[in-house]
Each structure stands twice: as structure tokens, then as C-alpha cells.
Amino acid sequence: MISADRLEMNEKQQIALFLGNVQAEEGEMQLSSDKMKVHYRPRQEGAKQTDRIREILAEGNVTLRQGEHIGRAAKAKYHVGKRFLVLEGDKKRAAVVQRNKDRLEGQRIHLMMDDQRRIQKVTVQGGQSGRVSAVITPEGDMQPVPGKKP
Q1: Residues ≥6 apart with Cβ < 8 Å to 89
Q2: How far apart are CA 116 and CA 89, in angstroms?
């Protein structure tokens, strides 16, 4: 489901353009942005409505929420059938994906998802400097050993 302040459709080109406070949901995955362009397939008898969407291009203040993961970027491209999402930064800010205290940052972040839209694989690419950054924290609470100072 996609909602926005405004919608422009071009049935001939099979494109829907959502503008202003755009919110898209598919299962546990939520994608929001200022603008979202949806490329879709023609209607087919017996096909589900969600199967019609081929690709989603989001621009401006892009936020992805999927389970514990939160991503932020200037742009996003979601290949629906392949379950492949690319978050892309701009000159001002890198793309970021966080899960709890873990944080990945780079010019482009590629996310592969399973059939339930859960993130299975992440690849991060650097920008002009070629550098990426990652903060990965151990799981669980780190408790000091009794009687010893941390």
C-alpha cells in the first residue's frame, strides 16, 4: 500500500508518481520519502495487486524501516521481484543503515531480502574517497565481572 499527499498516474507508461509525505508498506517493510515513482505491470486476470509493481524509485528524505533495521538516504531504488534495495547518499550525507547500536555508512548500500522482506545480505560501497564506515557492537549486555572495576 502506498499513500501520499498527491498522485499523478500515466497509465500508458505504467508509472505512478506519489508526491509529498509518501509512505509505502509491504509486509514488515516501510519506505517513506518526499517523492516516489512506481513502475508497474499491466493488469492480469487473477494476479495480486502487489505483483504488479516492478520497481520503486524514492527521492528526498528516504527512510527505510524493516524490523530492527532503519535506513536513511537521499535516494532509494527497490527492485520488487528481485527483493533488492539500493540506498544512495548524496554530496552532503552518506547512506546509513542502523540496527540497534550497529551502524553501516557509505555512498551506496545494497540490501538483499528474503521472501518475507527480511534483510539477508548487506553490501556497502564508498563514495569518491572509496571509504565506508561500520560500527558493530557485541550482542547482549556486557556485564562487569563482580569484584572487578570495568
Answers
A1: 73, 74, 95, 106, 107, 108, 127
A2: 26
pTM value is 0.83
**Sequence spans of domains, the chain:** 2-135
Cα–Cα distance measured from residue 127 to residue 100, given in angstroms and rounded to the nearest whole number: 25
Q: Which three cell numbers stand for residue 70?
A: 532503519
- Chain-centroid distance, C-alpha 107: 14
pLDDT digits (tens, 9 = 90+) for 75-134: 999 998 888 999 999 988 999 999 989 999 999 999 998 877 778 899 999 977 778 988
What would the grid cell of residue 5 be? 499527499
Residue bearing cell 508509472: 15
| Fold classification of 2-135 (topology level) | lipopolysaccharide transport protein A fold (2.60.450)
Rounded Cα–Cα distance for residues 108 and 129 (Å): 13
- pLDDT score of 142: 46
